[in-house]
Protein 1
Amino acid sequence: MGLKERLNRPGFWRLMVGQTVSSLGDWMGTLALMYFVLELSDSTTAVGGVLVLRLLPSAVGAPLAARIVTHWRRRQVMMYSNLVMMGMAFVLPIVPLLWWVYFWAFAIELAALVFLPARDASIPFLIEDPEERKHGNEHDTGTLEIANGITMATSYGMIPVGAGVFGLVLWATDALGWEGHWRYLAVFWLDALTYLACYLAIRSIADLGPAPGERPSGGRKKQEGTFLEGLRLPVVRGVLPGIAVVALGLGALFSLGVVFVRNVLEAGPIGFGTLVALFGVGAVTGLMIVRRGTWDLMKQIKTATVVQGVVIATMGLIASVAWAFAGAVVFGAAATAALVGGITYLQQGLEGYRRNLALTAFHATLRFGLALAALLAGAAADLLLHWDETPLGMKPSQAVLAVSGLIVIAGTFLIRRPREPSEDSG
């Protein structure tokens, strides 16, 4: 079966339509959340706390998520998690208190941690032929990476659209005379409707797996089908350091982005929106670069991660609007190439419930890294501002970005290819 036929399967495109709509709401809601928290607290650390909310779901919820994605069918997992996130997004902006906003943002991330592994584990199931699945044929790397690239594009490609819709909704609410937290009601309620649209799209898909032979056996050992088993898989151990380093760069940049653009580049909200939009452009560019599937996946992850670190470090050191905008495109391309490579590597190296476990570990690590980086970057910037001490006369956000980029570069040395990844296939 050819590439075109695989990617034109109705189930795959229904999932992509639902993912596109919900991603639009996710990015619109993420920007709204950052500005909402900044308005409530006027604190860099509090804005970083928006991404820190991804730490606890990863640390506390990952074992639960592993159980859910292993024992429930993927279609049910994705449908019900979207309904839960719809209700949470609806109630989040009602009370203008920081603890209330944090609580519901945390809860949404916990539900997302359940949704994402089920989504990624469904991609090979949707594009492969039933006969190939029956005979255990290996997945074509190029086709699988393109499918993952399309999935990633439906997420990061919605960044500029989400930023635009967020600005448009705020403009409309201002024109209507809405003030305070009421301005954000429309944004989050629109976000809630996008989760409903994703639910309806997934509901129309007949099956997302796992196939009967992919489920864990009833007599499996105690640690089989658990999050701990997923972390112990050699394929997972080879990829996770790279994902953690990518998350470090993403967390630092997104945590400090608003303050960096406002205080260092002096570009204001429009400048920040442009920076986010260009990141989305870069993400799509990265997908175009890796779409042919000719790169060695492990080399792709390492190379893209190094590029990401260089961009973050030079953004902080140069502090130029022109380079920040150009760097956002390069950064988006590098981050996307690394993440797509990591997901494809896990999908290709694993089958059945182990694939679900590995992708749960992937997303848990990504979110934990984002949270930790956001917390440390925001706290470091606030401390430097309080002490009024920064190297080379740089502003706090500049210095923290530069150091974060150097840490990302150093972290690439932890990425190692497992000796025999094929042993994990099940």
Protein 2
Amino acid sequence: MTLSSPGTRAEAEPRPDRPSVTELRLAAFAAHRRAGFPLGPLSLFSGPSGSGKSSALRAYEALARLGGGAELDEVFPDPVACVPERARPDSQRRRGFRIGCTADGPEGPVRLDVAVQAEPELRIVGERLTAGGLTLLETALRDPGRRTVQAAWHTAGSSPVTRAPLPDDRLGTALLPLRVAGKTDGQRQVLAAAEQMVVALRSVYACDPLPRSMRSAVPLGAGRLLRGCGNLAEVLWRTRAECGRRHGLLVDAVRAGCAGPVRDLLAETATGGVEGTVRALLDRGDGLRTPLGRLGDGELRYLALALVLLTGPGVLEVDPAGEVPAALQTLTVLADGFDRDLDVRQRVGLVRLAARMCERGHIRLVGAVSDASWAAGVGGVTVVDLEP
């Protein structure tokens, strides 16, 4: 693995107000062993098929869902697929995987590491939350016959730690705000670190636009863009009316990435179809409107990803931390196959748009590409080159 990066934050610079994940660690996950990947505001995992790009994004999304309180079996419906292929079971037939991350923010770098048993039963068997060299939370499986782990968190009061059982199917870090009173300095330190990690992980939008699902008329609904972007026409119906400025930026982006003239991008009630459905069109400016169904796969993926970058949690199907002001949260977009079906012009235009948006601090992007040489001249891009 080789890395290229625009640089790291100097020690003297103030800590960021918005928590964000700055490192992904895959100690033992799918094709990865003892791997650590630094992440910038705009990061691209690059490598050939089978190098582990998609599994890295899958691990990030799994941590995000666990940070949001999801149960383990929801996050890992096929946990055995996450176990390294050459991992051998122990004497009790147990196999598993280990993932983790670092979240930087007002509390400084906070590390989270999680060990998951995949066989014979899916459960979290160990978790550690650390900051500044201090272990703030540590869990371990003591009794395999019980569906709990023994947890110990930093207290620094009359007792140095507090011990209690936690469920083995949930991330302990996400449960701490409900368990820790915050009466001592140590407890408050634990709460602050846990909350920073949860906020950094929660606002994640994983997407992989599917052109075939974007070509047809769709029913009107909540107007939140789904993972495959199949309801893009419905979202355009909403966003075009809500924010003219952002819609204008989207039209500019589409104009640069789609063939032929583009004056506007709009949604209209579908005719001759099911009542209550809408379809999206390109206004060519000469009385001709081209349905999105006539566009190429690359144009549709380009359009969908541009819309993702130019909108926010209120439009995307994400679950941000509702108790934290939006100004203190960062949306992270996970885009598998970021360059799929795109020509060089579209790739460069899209990554430049991503760089401009990520520079503002309210959005980050982690994408997977087969080759990142075309992004070499774009500032602000961190390339993680996964060598076979």
Protein 3
Amino acid sequence: MDKLFKLQERGTTVSTEVMAGITTFLTMVYIVIVNPGILSEAGMDFHGVFIATVLASIVATLIMGVFSNYPIVIAPGMGLNAYFAFSVVGGSGISWQVALGAVFVAGVLFVLLSLTSFRYALLDAIPTSLKHAITAGIGLFITFIGLQNAKIIVDSPATLLTLGDLSAPMTLLTIVGLVISLILMAYRVRGFLFIGMILTAIIALITGQMHFPDAIVSMPSGLSATAFQLDIGSVFTKGLYSVIFTFLLITLFDTTGTMLGVAEQANLLKDNKFPRSQGALLADAAGTTVGALLGTSPTSAYIESSAGVAIGGRTGLTAVVVSILLAVTLFFSPVVSVLAGIPAITAPALIIVGFLMLNVLRKIEWNDIEEAFPAFLIVVLMPLTYSIATGIGVGFIVYPILKLVRGKRKDVHPIFYLFAVLFFIQLAFFNH
């Protein structure tokens, strides 16, 4: 064990790594409830997505733990699942099979990029302000979806949107669940989202808004409804290039940023560089590709991994422990199905995750109009157009225009000009 994970070299023990794995698992296990719930909105089979979510997470996290030896967990990313369900499928009228095809293509491209140094050029081409804006915009989009699912915000003929009936039982329960999670978060309780879900579920049982499942455990079943159902050919005939690019772009820099942050927290950076970065990125690329084959949206490194690092997790053994615990959840699909079917249980998680993602707005130079206004457009347009790709596209077009007008064309990476042209063509001439 010590030889494989270098426990002694990194100043940790098996017991510490196990506790770190349990802690990380509790902070991120909400995704096995939320992700199937979101993707089922796109017409996908809940049980199929549930198994695909768990299996893709296990594959990617095991690769991360065993081959890269990092205490980092990978699972379907929040924001990417919302983009898949509500923008690509719901907003564009594309079938979920074709959307999975786009995820697969993005995954294959991610694998190829991970094997070359071009990934660094791609990341360097995107201005830091726009990277932060994309993260914040996705956060606002996720929060918007959570508020809609809970009917805290509803449609209005007069104003498009308005405040819902807060006295409605499910909406009121959502608010209670949100308050519970926020209190747990304020007291820095590990796994506050998952614990908040469980406490909200207990209240739902008491008030009769949720019924206990007929069985607690069952053999995993239903994967055939989503596995290998992807339609790759239609991705190209329908011209979903911006969708592929959006999946790839967000996965690439979100994963890279999270990995660097967690590695820095664990003191695993060497001369401010990320050792074995190729293997770490390949783990996420494999997760995205396998996930598309099985039936789920792209994977991403989870910032919740920092919870395990905070109590001493330093090696891939932490990730292996999380993978084992995720495998156990496969047998609790009846419970997961019931929990995911109650908006009051899942909506608070969407709202809070969105809030946490907005934190990066403070890193944008708001006094610099050339940096701030394109970032502003990205953040605002993602929820207002109900499309992450549209928000990114408009921001990517406006940014170089402002730089050119100001005589700062050299401040824009040549690759970024290509991004701007491609997004302009997509928005102007194709269904977006």
